[in-house]
């Protein structure tokens, strides 16, 4: 949990998790760590779109949130009990694109993780916030060379960053849920989805199908060749309880 000020009102961020399952066996592959925010006094939830817009305009808070998640997971150990196979967290593209923010993220948390902890972690970077310039590409490669797995999140949202896809070798590519909405009933959408999988697979990346809500969608993406599935059909985001450290 992280307390902050949202438009002059006290608010708090709380952590949720959602399961990812293997396409082949429907067994647990890992969990994604998500955040939800509420206003403290009224307990009114803050919608995700205005929350992310606020965070993107308050980059120090964005960095603090990410550092807090990593600390809870690996450094203080308050969330260590949650890690089953792998834990996936979102890294804002601005934390990659901005040299000073990336340096602080690296020094404050990422550099402190052990090799074993890195094996449990997947860093998700949203497609439409990834810059295709050389520094961003170099920082992603740096993280991979340091033992982190990096995923391109929401591939296919709005405009597909094909240049970025061609210049970086992401370990994992998560297909945006908008791509699956009309699948499998719409033949054109189904053909496009399969072509996107073929394109991403040619890079040697694991492919995640996001937004799977029906059995028909699940059957289709398994047939089309995805490796991992995420969606309400298998798991809804659920709140988690932080284990507090014992005194003494």
TrEMBL record:
Protein name: EAL domain-containing protein
Xref: SMART domains: EAL
PANTHER family assigned: CYCLIC DI-GMP PHOSPHODIESTERASE PDEF, SIGNALING PROTEIN YKOW
Pfam families given in the database record: EAL (PF00563)
Origin organism lineage: Bacteria, Pseudomonadati, Pseudomonadota, Gammaproteobacteria, Alteromonadales
Residue stretches making up the EAL domain: 1-248
Residues spanning the signal sequence: none
InterPro entries membership: Cyclic-di-GMP_PDE-like, EAL_dom, EAL_sf
A GO molecular-function descriptor: cyclic-guanylate-specific phosphodiesterase activity
């Amino acid at each position: 949990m992280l307390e902050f000020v949202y438009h002059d009102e006290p608010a708090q961020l709380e952590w949720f998790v959602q399961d990812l399952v293997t396409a082949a066996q429907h067994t647990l592959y890992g969990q994604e760590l998500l955040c939800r925010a509420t206003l403290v006094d009224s307990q009114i939830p803050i919608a995700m779109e205005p929350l992310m817009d606020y965070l993107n305009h308050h980059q120090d808070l964005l960095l603090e949130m990410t550092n807090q998640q990593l600390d809870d997971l690996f450094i203080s150990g308050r969330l260590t009990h949650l890690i089953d196979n792998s834990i996936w967290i979102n890294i804002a593209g601005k934390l990659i694109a901005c040299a000073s923010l990336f340096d602080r993220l690296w020094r404050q948390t990422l550099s402190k993780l052990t090799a074993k902890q890195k094996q449990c972690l997947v860093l998700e970077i949203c497609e439409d916030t990834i810059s295709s310039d050389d520094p961003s590409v170099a920082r992603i490669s740096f993280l991979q060379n340091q033992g982190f797995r990096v995923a391109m999140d929401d591939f296919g949202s709005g405009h597909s960053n094909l240049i970025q896809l061609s210049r970086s070798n992401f370990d994992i590519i998560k297909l945006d849920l908008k791509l699956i909405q009309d699948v499998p009933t719409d033949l054109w959408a189904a053909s496009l989805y399969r072509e996107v999988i073929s394109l991403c697979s040619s890079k040697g990346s694991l492919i995640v199908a996001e937004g799977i809500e029906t059995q028909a969608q699940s059957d289709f993406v398994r047939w089309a060749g995805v490796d991992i599935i995420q969606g309400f059909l298998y798991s809804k985001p659920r709140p988690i309880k932080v284990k507090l450290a014992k005194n003494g």
